[in-house]
Amino acid sequence: MEKNTITIIGFPYGNIGSLVNMFKHLKVNCVVESDPKSIAKATRIVLPGVGAFDQGMQCLNSVSGLIDVLNKKALVEKIPILGVCLGMQMLTDGSDEGSIPGLGWIKGKASRFPEMRDLKIPHMGWNISTPTQNHSLFKDISIDPKYYFVHSYMVQATNPVNVLMKANYGVEFDSAIGSENICGVQFHPEKSHKYGKQILKNFSEM
Q: What is the largest CA-CA distance in the chain?
């Protein structure tokens, strides 16, 4: 597999078509793979996801050997990995939405937004997401860009050093997290126009 090719993990609970289209627009090679033998050759991985936490983890766990391959790529080979929306939540220890453990690459957990009289759940639409530290994922992005969110559960990383971005929807939450080669964004960069496009470009160059 070419060094700069993005491997998107293909499973039913991912917004894959929009991601593929955005990478094509960026003229970045990408492939959609669900076979662990092919994923073992990946040099960059995007873990997408929409829907319920347990459904996403069940899908990963149902493919024999896939979790082992992902752990090796993330923790041993340390290739760049990006989790998107539910994919970011699955990077953590788990979610109050379900009972199946997450990948556990970044310590933290997802919990449901509290009921708020003037705000609807899910959090859906455009919102400012502010970097909390310098990171290559945010290269050439202006201050306080807006991204497109769709989620009912919010991540809070255990260690503040793993928080890359913050957003606010009645309460403050971690909108991007990271640890070394692994990072995740709660928003959908593939639906976030120029700012999301730059996020994916930056990832492709990590």
A: 51
Instruction: Answer yes or no: 85 catalytic.
Output: yes
Task: Using DSSP, state whether 66 is helix, strand or coil.
Answer: helix
Cβ atoms of 105 and 74 within 8 Å: the answer is yes
Read off the pLDDT of residues 60-99 as tens digits, 9 standing for 90 and up. Answer: 999 889 999 999 999 999 999 999 999 999 999 999 999 9
Residue 53 is part of a domain; what is its CATH number?
A: 3.40.50.880
Domain holding 171, by residue range, is 6-204
Annotated active-site residue 190? The verdict is yes
**Active-site position among 85, 97, 123, 151:** 85
N-term to C-term CA, the chain: 17
- Number of folded domains that form the chain: 1
The model scores a pTM over 0.85: yes
188 carries an active-site annotation: yes
Q: Quick one: CA dihedral 122, 123, 126, 132, positive or negative?
A: negative
